[in-house]
Design brief:
heterodimer, A: 11 helices, B: three-stranded antiparallel β-sheet, 12% strand
Chain lengths: 246, 115
Amino acid sequence: MQMTTEARTWLDSTVRRILARHPLGDAERAGITYELMSHLHAAGEARATAAGRSEVAREDLEAALLEAGGENGLAAAFVEPLAKPVERVLFGRRLGAYVIDLIIVFIGIGLIQQLLDFTPGAHLFFEVAPAPPLWRINSLWYPWGQDPTMSYGLQALFALASGAWVIGYFAWTEAHGGRSLGKRALHLQVMRVDGGPITFRESILRNLVKLSPPLLFLDVVIMLLAFAKDKQRVSDRIAGTIVVKA
Amino acid sequence: MPEEVLRWTQQIRKGSTRLAILQLVSERERYGYEIVTSIRNRTNGGLEVAEGNVYPALHALEAEGHVTSTWREVEPGVPPRKYYRITARGREHRSVLVKEWKEYASAIARLLEGE
């Protein structure tokens, strides 16, 4: 039996809310989504039939949810048994993963430098049109792509490209499977607080601070002082993400 | 019903859910909600099981290889249904449970007869 549009919308959002209660792997999430929808629809259909309706209405689904013990009841029946036990990680292994990632980051920056150095005419072009050294912020706050032997224009390009590589590396790898190479090596994974896979947006939010080591340091110190229980950097809190053993 | 009676019947029911499910899916394949309502209807409400017990039991039975499941589209535009069917292993398991159940029931009956 078909559902009304209102019922369908309600079903989608309700199931999503129930699923958000516990961390789940991708496969489990897909399976439970179907099962929950299927169950509520079947139970709602029985009600609609009893009431002589030809479409499953939102009230039928709501009654079905209530009978099943509400959102808590369904979460306990469907989600909890399959929920992934997650163990959040605070500091040690995350630092180790970061060191590995830093090595990869610097290898990448070295390659960018080589590329810029050996691009025929690059020096010449930037020599002709030197950019004002406004971008030359203190290298402590932005250490990516610093090469004083380059022309100003090339230095600017080098610094920008390196920063883009740093944020791009972390954000892209973590948005695809939740693991940078360092995290992969140390069996760590980033996930949303509800256990879902993180999106590119969340990944950028939690990694943006890595552009500036002092800010990252501050972020970590605040975590250790204030959020040690939740094991989240401030950036993690903003993005709604956690780092867990995988 | 007083609290302690409620708790006690709940405990008895929990164990019988598995047998009830195996019985129902051994007759023909059924989907989750159908199992919930069938148990209620077949026992005239005597065995009232909650969704909260049926689905975890189904998942456990499937993980143990006693039942298998297939997703079937019922009609386009509505969620598909997961149909559960008993396996050969499940049939064996069912007969063991039936035997145990009967022995247990008659043991309790003998006990209640008194000296």
